[in-house]
Write a structure and sequence with these properties.
It is a single chain. It contains 8 helices and 6 strands. It is of the alpha/beta class. The chain has one domain: Rossmann fold (3-Layer(aba) Sandwich), CATH 3.40.50.1000. It has a 6-stranded parallel beta sheet with strand order 1-6-5-2-3-4, sandwiched between helices. Strand 5, helix 7 and strand 6 form a beta-alpha-beta unit. Helix 1 packs across helix 7. The longest helix is centred in the last third of the chain and has 17 residues.
Length: about 190
């Protein structure tokens, strides 16, 4: 619990420092997509993106699901026909064993970047960039939360892409989905004002 409070305080402090960049993400269409299935390998190439980092909850599946949404699976198969699997990484605060096993079986080239400490702390992402010898401008981080993945991207200098209509499943997880929806709503209202 103490760690969670520290993470929230860190996020709020860094969000205040980066409020202009967060507002830019909210206001400019180049930083947003309705859903991950609208992202194409052609667009990635046009933008000079060589590595793609994807959040899991909200981006690839509803919160708490153990495998990606069926439409996302079809999108992944298409994307990986022209985007190298070894350049696609899952960057989730909840990298469950079931999720990792699913990807190992169905998309063996896709790897996991484990955020320790969790997003929005930038240490794991910064260390990964350094270990891969990558320019931050060549990396795109896709997330559905402003104060976790998007803030982490801004802190490290990688390109952020916000998913505007995250995948949800209120039938199977009404309380956790409701809680996350409230968090998303608050975050977006904070940085979409004036």
């Amino acid at each position: 619990m103490n760690f969670m409070i520290s993470r929230v305080l860190f996020a709020l402090d860094r969000a205040y420092q980066r409020q202009a960049a967060l507002k830019q993400v909210m206001r400019q269409s180049e930083f947003k997509l309705p859903a991950i299935v609208h992202l194409s390998a052609v667009w990635l190439k046009e933008q000079g993106i060589e590595y793609l980092l994807l959040d899991f909850d909200g981006v690839l599946a509803a919160h708490g699901a153990s495998e990606p949404d069926p439409a996302v699976l079809n999108w992944l198969k298409e994307l990986l026909k022209s985007f190298p699997a070894e350049r696609l990484w899952i960057f989730s605060n909840c990298p469950t064993k079931e999720r990792q096993v699913f990807f190992a079986l169905h998309f063996p080239g896709v790897r996991w970047l484990l955020p320790v400490p969790k997003k929005p702390y930038p240490q794991a992402l910064a260390k990964w960039l350094q270990s891969q010898g990558l320019l931050s401008s060549k990396v795109l981080l896709v997330d559905d939360r402003l104060l976790t993945g998007i803030l982490c991207a801004l802190l490290v200098g990688v390109k952020p892409l916000l998913i505007e209509k995250p995948l949800v499943n209120f039938k199977s997880r009404p309380f956790s989905e409701g809680y996350i929806r409230i968090l998303r709503w608050v975050e977006r209202r904070l940085f979409n004002s004036y």
